[in-house]
Amino acid sequence: MKILYFAWMRQRIGASNEDMDLPDSVNTVDGLVDWLIARGDGYAQAFAKREVIRAAVNQEYVQFDHAVTNGDEIAFFPPVTGG
Amino acid sequence: MKILYFAWMRQRIGASNEDMDLPDSVNTVDGLVDWLIARGDGYAQAFAKREVIRAAVNQEYVQFDHAVTNGDEIAFFPPVTGG
Amino acid sequence: MIRVQEEDFDIGAELATFCAGDTSIGGVASFTGLVRDMAPIDGSARTIKTMTLEHYPGMTEKKLAEIEAEANKRWPLAASLIIHRYGTLAPGDQIVFVACASAHRQAAFDACQFLMDWLKTDAPFWKLEDTDTGGAWVEARDSDDKAAARWGKPETAS
Amino acid sequence: MIRVQEEDFDIGAELATFCAGDTSIGGVASFTGLVRDMAPIDGSARTIKTMTLEHYPGMTEKKLAEIEAEANKRWPLAASLIIHRYGTLAPGDQIVFVACASAHRQAAFDACQFLMDWLKTDAPFWKLEDTDTGGAWVEARDSDDKAAARWGKPETAS
């Protein structure tokens, strides 16, 4: 599983991407976020306002109840501000 | 008084502009059109559909009841189609 | 700024200069009108060989300046530009170019559409299409009146 | 066509080539987004020194291609183009360019606005402004969500 972070989430976590093994207990984006938050303060700060964070699985926007598997590319980021 | 004609009005009348003395009997655009129509077939054809013709006095759009005087520049043309 | 001219224009050069150096600008909207190769006449399409644009020198410049002033009154524009050609053009040739620069994109877009819509119904230009079956003056379209009306355009005088 | 690149682009050259040779085109609408010199932060304006655009390589191209495809489904476009830069830019620099060509001007205008509105809310870019009082990530604006919603944009996933 590859996880990517962008903008201020990247800064708070201190990494732009990580390769991890998905724990057996985690099946959804929501579950993944809970698991990440438990890993440390940087994650807790990055996901503090979970309702504003957007998630993409394999480069498609998803809701947080979306399934995740170990082969997925999962990205977390704030609302986009390009253009 | 200078009168200008554009597009198919110019073609039907056979002139792009004319310098004329305004007859004493003519006081409005409408009166001028009546007077022009009486001058010949070209004018009659050009003004046949008077309701679609637009008029400008001194380069400003006007209604046909607008006053005209001998020093005016008066233009008649079909609806515009630029752009 | 407005320009009425027979010669062609270079959009890249125009866009590069009309609002150069003003870093308060967040967006530039522009529109280029081109001569199409087909004319819908009497319900069927005919191939256009040339298009000749006639205009009313003097009144044209006056009307375009009024339309530009109205846009600048309605929207906070940093710069605006209207270029309109006259004379004989071929399919693919540029006819008209309008551009609006503003701090915000919606103002730039709206003002740009406004300029096109109003000049279509107010600027004294007439198009003569020379097609494979003869010449014909382009007729004014209801859709152009409707487009102008959405910006609160008063009834056209007649 | 879409392009995501760090280097600057030449609008004149892009406009001249993206729909060249297609004489069915009656109008080309385009929009250029520029870096502004002022950032409204916490209600007061601060001077921007640089703006850095971060993006999600791969997903960016995918989303821009989807947005362009959607525009081409909704309007009869002869050609369309989206160019978006990333990296560090200065006030006055070009960020984004979109252009749409169509037989009719309203389709060109509408599609052009649609592309801008949707990419603002869907394309994974983030702006970091370096101002005279420090760096700050630009926050998403409600007005952008509203602009996207007028084209029937579904709620953003979260």
How do you describe this structure in short?
Chain A has 83 residues and is an alpha+beta fold.
**Major β-sheet strand ordering of chain A:** 2-1-5-3-4
What number is the mean pLDDT of chain A?
96
Say what oligomer this is. heterotetramer
> How much helicity do the residues of chain A have?
25-40%
Chart the SSEs and their pairings.
The complex is a heterotetramer, with two copies of chain A (83 residues) and two copies of chain C (158 residues).
Chain A: E1 2-5, H1 7-13, E2 17-19, H2 29-37, H3 41-46, E3 54-57, E4 60-62, E5 73-77
Parallel strand pairs in A: 1-5
Antiparallel strand pairs in A: 1-2, 3-4, 3-5
Chain C: E1 2-5, H1 11-18, E2 27-34, E3 38-41, E4 44-55, H2 59-74, E5 77-85, E6 87-89, E7 94-102, H3 105-122, E8 125-131, E9 134-137, H4 142-149
Helix pairs in contact in C: 2-3, 3-4
